[in-house]
Write a structure and sequence with these properties.
One of its GO terms (molecular function) is S-adenosylmethionine-dependent methyltransferase activity. The chain is of the alpha/beta class and 292 residues long. It is 36% helix and 21% strand. The chain has 2 domains: 90 residues, no CATH class; 190 residues, 3-Layer(aba) Sandwich (Rossmann fold), CATH 3.40.50. The protein contains 10 helices and 13 strands. Helix 2 packs antiparallel against helix 3. The chain is globular and about 50 Å long. The structure holds zinc ion. Zinc ion (ZN) binds next to loops.
């Protein structure tokens, strides 16, 4: 994690005054919602995880306790931090590794329902989440490659719609929360499925509006504020609905909508703060694309 320390002066110069003002205001008001939302809305995507990492690690001492536990980093706290771009969710973000509810759920899923930690595999992690990177890198059985358009810790910089990678070269691909950003969804999916080996699988999670029957996309909406109004975030270009599985479907690909969370003990769901166990929706399911 030294990269973060090395880049601290740069971040202070870039965002110093604004961050300082927001942190002191948030601490005075005991209002972490405000500061996390400030980061999400003002820090460029490229630097976001680093800046949030600094902020949360400097205040995690205030969250000491043993009421919730992070399945990814194994640390426990009295509660997790609030998190949300437009509406904040309570008890969401691990102050140590930045895992959110979906990451903690996915980690359990990968451990319990897949064999990626047991056999030799090649794994392409697109738009890699910080909370997972070190754990995957440490795995001797995984040939691990991270890829992203601009992320500073990506091994390869690429556009998911046109990846400079060999056909059928990965056993496992993971691309979470990117399909709502890409211009051409069809191209992005075709590329992900192209680089997957036969018998391999991809995990493709995206934000889904459970109130929407079908996925909503309108290429004429290009203004960031209009995009936020229509698709939920300034850099989203569509909003997925209950038809998400059929949106992912392509010839030679089987889509599994795994309701893994429903098999977990209620106490576990609460302990790991995976979701509200009384209000599970399609957003809590794991979507797996298997190449036949
Ligand atoms: Zn954690």
């Amino acid at each position: 994690m030294n990269i973060f320390k090395d880049l601290l002066p740069l971040q202070i110069v870039l965002f110093g005054k604004k961050i300082k003002k927001a942190i002191s205001k948030a601490i005075k008001l005991n209002d972490m919602k405000r500061i996390i939302k400030f980061f999400l809305r003002n820090i460029p995507r490229k630097y976001l995880q680093k800046v949030v990492y600094f902020a949360t690690n400097s205040i995690k001492v205030f969250y000491l306790g043993n009421k919730v536990e992070c399945s990814v980093c194994k640390k426990h706290y009295r509660k997790f931090l609030p998190y949300g771009y437009v509406h904040s969710r309570e008890n969401a973000l691990c102050p140590n590794c930045l895992a959110l509810e979906r990451h903690r759920l996915l980690w359990l899923y990968l451990k319990e329902r897949t064999d990626i930690f047991k056999k030799d595999i090649s794994f392409l992690h697109i738009a890699p989440e910080l909370c997972f990177i070190e754990s995957f890198r440490k795995q001797k059985n995984i040939k691990y490659t991270t890829a992203d358009l601009e992320s500073p810790w990506a091994d390869i910089h690429l556009n998911v719609e046109d990846m400079p990678l060999e056909d059928e070269s990965y056993d496992f691909v993971m691309a979470n929360h990117i399909l709502e950003h890409v211009d051409n969804l069809d191209k992005a999916l075709s590329e992900i499925y192209r680089v997957l080996k036969k018998g391999g699988f991809a995990i493709l999670l995206s934000p889904i509006n459970p109130k929407r029957e079908t996925t909503y996309e309108d290429k004429n909406i290009t203004d960031p504020f209009e995009r936020e109004k229509h698709f939920g975030q300034k850099d989203h270009v569509r909003e997925f609905g209950l038809d998400y599985a059929s949106v992912l479907k392509k010839e030679g690909i089987e889509i599994v909508e795994d309701r893994f969370i429903e098999t977990l003990d209620r106490k576990k769901v609460i302990r790991y703060a995976l979701a509200n166990p009384d209000c599970l929706t399609i957003e809590n399911y794991i979507f797996v694309a298997k190449k036949l």
